[in-house]
């Protein structure tokens, strides 16, 4: 293994708060070891098309608290066609990169895993507001998203109560309902619907009616965008658009639910789709700290010559796991946690 001189870093997939904190930590730690760092622009796109920029202590100054990612991101999949893959491998050599740090969720880390199988020295850093990567207790971005959802539910509570309304809040969460469950518990939701447990619209309406018969004049229902009604095997969406990894553009289940609830219960119902507000803006202190710990640890792995690994948080310690782990299995919502949420349903 030749000694490391230059590290490439990229951010792929959906952005999330804390990416800049991670980039800053990578650059600061790398520079302390005398490594040069280049930022690969817009995820794997930058390596296919040769778009990079040097990252120095100076260029990462002042970005810790800033949302988004200074090097951009995209959902580019280099394994979609052989030509892109060959361009990526050629550019990797051309830029003289000795090791790559790939900051991403299931798709970006999936590409990293495949490249690592091809012999590219790679270390992964887990990020996603969805918190659905196995092997790590938390991903950064999640805490900020939950804070935003909690704040939104708090605000919806007061207007729901004033108008005697049902409020349906659609939150992100494609395969898993971590944001819905955490945000729903924190915000005191009356029903939380998640992708892991298909829902019965009749039961949801019965629960709401019973609650109102008990004297409550409003209800808050949190639904993850990937939640499905029983006996329906596909997502409820308002679009057929699909990304390069084959994922359909979600969004629509909230409106479906709102319409059905109003029709079946007769209660005035409004729908709020939080959408990308959950991914934007400044990261919470927790996300800044986690992203910083991951960034530093990723460079330390490179220094130790440990590749094909992903940094992870387990029992509040930073560890490293095989990069295939988050790729092979999603981390779904802990059933015990969902049982706790259910104590407050209705
Ligand atoms: O990957 C995280 C996520 O925010 C999902 O929860 C959501 O389904 C998706 O990204 C939305 O992606 P896009 O930014 O492409 O609309």
Automatic annotation (TrEMBL):
Coarse class of the protein's main subcellular location: cytoplasm
Binding-site residues, ADP: 24-28, 188-190, 214, 216-218
CC cofactor: Mg(2+)
Protein's UniProt keywords contain ATP-binding: yes
Residues where diphosphate binds: 14
EC main group: transferase
Residues the entry annotates as binding Mg(2+): 106
Binding residue positions for substrate: 128-130, 165, 172-174, 225, 270, 276-279
Site (Important for catalytic activity and substrate specificity) location in chain: 107
Pathway annotation: Carbohydrate degradation; glycolysis; D-glyceraldehyde 3-phosphate and glycerone phosphate from D-glucose: step 3/4
Family: Belongs to the phosphofructokinase type A (PFKA) family. ATP-dependent PFK group I subfamily. Prokaryotic clade 'B1' sub-subfamily.
Record's protein name: Multifunctional fusion protein
Organism of provenance: Candidatus Schekmanbacteria bacterium GWA2_38_11
